[in-house]
Amino acid sequence: MNLKAYLEERRALINRSLQAYLPAVRGPAFRVVEAMHYSLFAGGKRLRPILCLAAAEAVGGDPGEALPAACALEMIHTYSLIHDDLPAMDDDDLRRGKPTCHRQFDEATAILAGDGLLTEAFHILAAASPRHAGSEASLLEVIELISKAAGYQGMVGGQMLDLQAEGRQVTLKELETIHRLKTGALLTASCRAGAILGGGTRSEITILTGYGEKFGLAFQITDDLLDVEGSTAEMGKPAGSDEARQKATYPALLGVEKSREWAKHLVEEAVRDLEPLGPKAQPLVEIARYLLVRRA
Ligand code: GRG
Fold it and tell me: How many domains does the chain have?
């Protein structure tokens, strides 16, 4: 398959859908919507929504069924980036190749834009109209799993652990816990949500959850490697910032070579997990392999 064309087609579909959910609104009273819109459309790979749609396809479902959840996941992800960049957290000036939200607007507006995106995500999910009888229960299950993955038992909890670990030596086990929660939880939820909304069986949902967990960890390792080896221009965010902040990372703990091997191993395992799903899962196979060669 042509992965580049597939990703471009999916990105266009997701962007059209996000535009429909969050039209650009102008005028001083709509400053927060402007800021939400600015960060949501500042770029981004749309990885979480792409995984969600691909997981629905992998179980033989209609990706359209998963589109509201896919958009909600991208909104939650964008909120997390806006808040992560704030002066109280990472204090970054550049994100997705553009000034961060608090740099473009101001700190209070950036906080509200993040809050607005997080809340809107759950509005979209709650307002989604299931196309088939019986899909209401799947939607409720997805709302439950996404809220858990985004909150203190997932991303928020991981971010807290990450901030607490700054400047101190952590073990490999601690690092894995941080990343499983901070980055992995939402990526795993994206795959699981897609499988549920695509009408997958319990065993198919379990397979895609396992894929998501391995993918999430491999994604974080390659993100850490990019911070060491990538360029600011390619990534659209400052390179080398993990080391400058004495952040716990895989290359810092394991070295570059061992980290690369570990990421490769996880990708191979994730791909092997998908075997029972056959050719329908090919996009997910290719997306996992792409992790090992990505430059942004
Ligand atoms: C503030 C609650 C809260 C959480 C923040 C996700 C996160 C937690 C912080 C982001 C910091 C960071 C760089 C984490 C590494 C992995 C990661 C999430 C990278 C960015 O995701 P991509 O590469 O970004 O999918 P794009 O811009 O392509 O969407």
Answer: 1
